[in-house]
Specification:
The complex is a heterodimer. Chain A is mainly beta. Helices cover about 0% and strands about 50% of the residues of chain A. Chain A has no helices and ten strands. In chain A, the strands form two sheets. Chain A has a six-stranded mixed beta sheet, with no helix packed on it. Chain A has a four-stranded antiparallel beta sheet with strand order 1-3-8-7, with no helix packed on it. The relative contact order of chain A is 0.34. Chain B is mainly beta. Chain B has no helices and eleven strands. In chain B, the strands form two sheets. In chain B, strands 2, 4, 5, 6, 9, 10 and 11 form a seven-stranded mixed beta sheet that branches. In chain B, strands 1-3-8-7 form a four-stranded antiparallel beta sheet, with no helix packed on it. Chain B starts with a strand and ends with a strand. Classes of the chains: A mainly beta, B mainly beta. Chains A and B meet through strand 4 and strand 5 of A and strand 5, strand 9 and strand 10 of B.
Chain lengths: ~110, ~130
């Protein structure tokens, strides 16, 4: 199975900050990488697919980049509603494994 | 409007078989390039992808759970069923179903992602 490793595991930031979360795959996955946001007690929401394609309805302050094994999710200016846990997921090879999550907290 | 709803027992005993049903609306299970996936999340832990099924009946399973999982669909009822045998307390958690989409970009094999999720159903394994 492909292992997905996110860093950091947790992050404190302030409203208005620019934040970057990293996801590394244990083998090359081209751009078969998705990002999800999950708020407490809720199901995840899709933010980005194919590494950099913004899902319809997702604010443009979210962006994704990367290819091969290293990927990033960037939030350009944090809003109060962005404090949540973020997961990457590879969709290159079954099983479509997730990272362990990055919890974004208010500083 | 696309919706998915999970249903099943709240409590199961160790060694029992869990059967979960995902009822979908707003799309058809016969649509090409659309399927349903199951994902679970133990309390306070990360998401774990379990299985998927597509309109052509193509199926995929978690490597570690493959021997215990079976996914199937009933298109007439708009339902996808996941069974997991030999339940254990470590299987306690929230189980989600999600619509899975395949999108072709450039000339590459399709990209797979889960774009609409159910609210989840909580399953506790305890005697």
């Amino acid at each position: 199975d492909i292992q997905m490793t996110q860093s950091p595991s947790s992050l404190s930031a302030s409203v208005g900050d620019r934040v970057t979360i990293t996801c590394r795959a244990s083998q090359r996955i081209i751009t078969y990488l998705n990002w999800y946001q999950q708020k407490p007690g809720k199901a995840p929401d899709l933010l980005i697919f194919a590494a950099s394609s913004l899902q319809s309805g997702v604010p443009s302050r979210f962006s994704g980049s990367g290819s091969g094994t290293d990927f990033t999710l960037t939030i350009s200016s944090l809003q109060p509603e962005d404090f949540a846990t973020y997961y990457c997921q590879q969709s290159f090879i079954i099983p479509y494994t997730f990272g362990q999550g990055t919890k974004l907290e208010i500083k | 409007q696309v919706t998915l709803k999970e249903s099943g027992p709240v409590l199961v005993k160790p060694t029992e078989t869990l059967t979960l049903t995902c009822t979908v609306s707003g799309f058809s299970l016969t649509n090409a390039r659309v399927g349903v996936s199951w994902i679970r999340q133990p309390p306070g832990k990360a998401l774990e992808w379990l299985a998927h099924i597509f309109s052509d009946d193509e199926k995929g399973y978690s490597t570690s759970l493959k021997s215990r999982l079976t996914i199937s669909k009933d298109t007439s009822k708009s339902q996808v069923v996941l069974t997991m045998t030999n339940m254990d307390p470590v299987d306690t958690g929230t189980y989600y179903c999600a619509r899975s989409a395949l999108k072709t970009i450039a000339a590459r094999p399709p990209y797979y992602y889960m774009d609409v999720w159910g609210k989840g159903t909580t399953v506790t394994v305890s005697s």
